Every structure is written in structure tokens, then in C-alpha cells.
Amino acid sequence: MRNILLKEIKLSASPLSFIFIVFGLMFFLPGYPILCGAFFVTLGIFYSFQSAREANDIVFSALLPIAKRDVVRGKFLFVCFIECCALILMAASMIVRMTALAESDIYRTNALMNANPFALGVAFLLFGLFNLIFVGGFFKTAYRFARPFVTYLIVGFLVIAAAEALHHFPGLDCLNAFGTDRLGLQILLLAAGGALYLCMTVLACRKACRDFEKIDL
Amino acid sequence: MSIIEVSQLRKEYPSFTLKDVSFGIEKGRITGFIGRNGAGKTTTIKSMLNLVHPDSGTVCYFGKPLVGNETDIKKRIGYSTGAVNWYPRKKIRDIVGVVKGFYETWDEEAYRKYRELFTLDEQKTPHELSEGMKVKCNLLLSLSHRAEVLILDEPTSGLDPFSRNELLDIFTGLKDEGVAVFFSTHIISDIEKCADDIVYLSRGSVVAATDKAGFAEQFSRDGETLEETMLRLEKEGSHA
Known about the structure:
heterodimer; A: mainly alpha; 0% strand; B: four-stranded antiparallel sheet
């Protein structure tokens, strides 16, 4: 799998996939829907799928001495690698905001979502949805990606809107906790996001392997 | 025993059917796979590489079925398809750098030898290569990992007569080393020049799978060249 990941990074990937990891730092932005950072990261990954298709990457990979399912696993590995890099940046930004910048006025007066473990959990959820809807959807044909991307776009923005709005509902203000407030609940929500990410990615990868096996290239 | 055994391969498309294609490829022999455009050559080759799923039939390499032994078999075979553009904006050196990691049998000396023979500049990108050079670039990847079998889809198309001749000589050299070469073409003179065996496909069916002399004996009329025989067979087939 090391070789197939190297192939993804050196031949298939668009440079934008790596550059857009920086959008993980949007967790620092006050007065901005920070989860859009997660969306931009997935947009960067989308560019890799686009450039890979133009380079006949799928057929090239299928001809390498690997099983067909490893072509799919390689793509998932690359996608998860980019997502994990972005999640590390988001987590680092979140920790700084929860500690050194916990009392900062600019964040305290922010009407939008706070960068806390719940936000990171939703970022996990968004990446999971991208893997399930877009990456999984792409491997139904290994060629068409417009429909799965538009579907992801709609679902992704609904999730972002819902996550941004939730803490304004009565009784849900705990979702927008600052510093180490409600830490137990916050960590639970983060763990739930992580678990959903894992489940959706594994599910998508298994289904994509099955779908790709049936495709005539 | 044949090094490749294709048995009863069948694939149905709405407008075309590959009908129970069967043939064998022997070690140390060159087999020309001939048929006009649309005869089913590429579908057969893609089925032999697990890129296309036949509705029925099997493909075995070295006595083992391809399904279930794909990784091991692919390490021992080389494949090249005409002038397809892989990663058009990446340097050849970078493509080679990645590909060689997949083969324990990668032969750096063979790579250098064929790169020099093909006068291929590895600093170039496939986008900068002519159609003929793209064919050579694809071939270079197949020839550099000591493949025991070479499966080549239209390797001579787009090549100038000198390069074509050079390539056919390379096939002969590989054959002498015990490599089985299986190449599709619609250029009959390529078959005449170097093939030992012929698999002739017409409208999705194998018309003949035999050695060159056997083919001539079975199908050629007196004084007819292989090309004339093929043209006549195709003409007769289209009127049948």
C-alpha cells in the first residue's frame, strides 16, 4: 500500500489538494463559518480526482501489479491522508483557541460557531460524508464525478448550516462551549464525529471496492 | 502447456459479441493477434488483463487462473497499449520512478538499454512526445521489469517504418530469451515479418489460432501473400 500511496501523491494528485490543506487554519477565523474550511479541503481533493481522470490514472493503476481493489484502497488512503493533515491543523487551531485565546473578545462576541471539539467532530462528519457520497459515488463508474460531487455539496452545506445554527436553539448553547467548558460533552461529540467518519469511510471503501470490481475499464 | 490459455471467452455488448474466444500462447514464441478494427482484439486483450469482465470463459497464466492470482501474474507480465497518454504533464523519469517500486524484478540495466535504444529523453513529459514516442515510452515500462509475457495492443501503430522494424527486431530478441510476445495489429506485414503464430479474429470469433505455416496451408491460395489471404477472408466474411 505504500507504493500505491506514493503513486497517488507523486502522479495522481493535484497540487491544489496539498495547498488546500491550509484551509484547516480557517478554524482561527472569527465571524466566519469555520466548517467551510473542511469543505475547501474536500474541494482540493476533488481537483485530484479531476486531474487523475484526465491522466487516465484509473486504467494505469489497474494495470499495475496490484489487485483491482487496491486501486480503490489507494485512492481512499490518499483522501484520508489529506483529510488527516487538515484535521491536525484544525485540531491545533482549536487547542490554541481553547487555551491561549479562550478569553479573546473577538471570539467571545462571535455569533457563529466556536472552534471547539464539537466543531472538529462536525469536520470529521463532513469528511466522512465526502468519502461516502463523493469518493464512494465516483467508483460506481470510475469516471463520472459531477453527480456525486453536487450531492455532497448539497448535503455538506446543509450539515454546515445546521451545525452553525444548532447552538442558537434553546438548550443547545452547550454546543458552542468556550475554553474547557462542558469538556466531557464536547469530547463525547468529537468522538462521535470521529466514529461516524471511520464508519462512513470503511463503508464507502468496501462498497467502492465491490463496485469497481464490476466495472469494465 | 501454454503460458497463456484463453478459454471460451464470451462478452456481450448491445452491438457486438465476443464469441467463445479460445487460444493458447507458447513460451518463446511471437503471436500476432490480427483482425480488422472492431473485430474484438482490444476487448479480448482487456479481458486477458481483467480490465473487462467476460460474461463467461477463463484466462490462465502459467497454469493459474487470472482471477484470484492477479497480483502475482501481473508482476510476471508486461502490457502496453498504443499511444495512450498516461500522466501527460509528468516527467517520464517521475513516472518510471513510481512504476519501478511495484516490481521486485525491475531491471535498471534493461531500462537504460531500451531508453537509449528508443532515444527517449526521460526529462520530457508524455505530452511533449510524438505518437510513436508515446508507444515507445509505454513499451519501455513493459520491457524493464523482465516480463515473461508481453501483451501489446497495437504497439506498431503510429511508428515510422524504421522504428517499427526496430521494434519487431526487439520482439525477436525477446523471443530468443524465452519471452512470449503477444501483439495485436492490423498491419499484416508485421505478422509476416516476425510472428511464429497467428490468432485471427473476425467479427468477435476466432477464425484461426495456429502457426504461420499452418495458417497459410489452411487458408492461402497458391501464390497468395498473407495480406491477400486476410483481405480475401475478410471480404468473403462480409458477404457471408
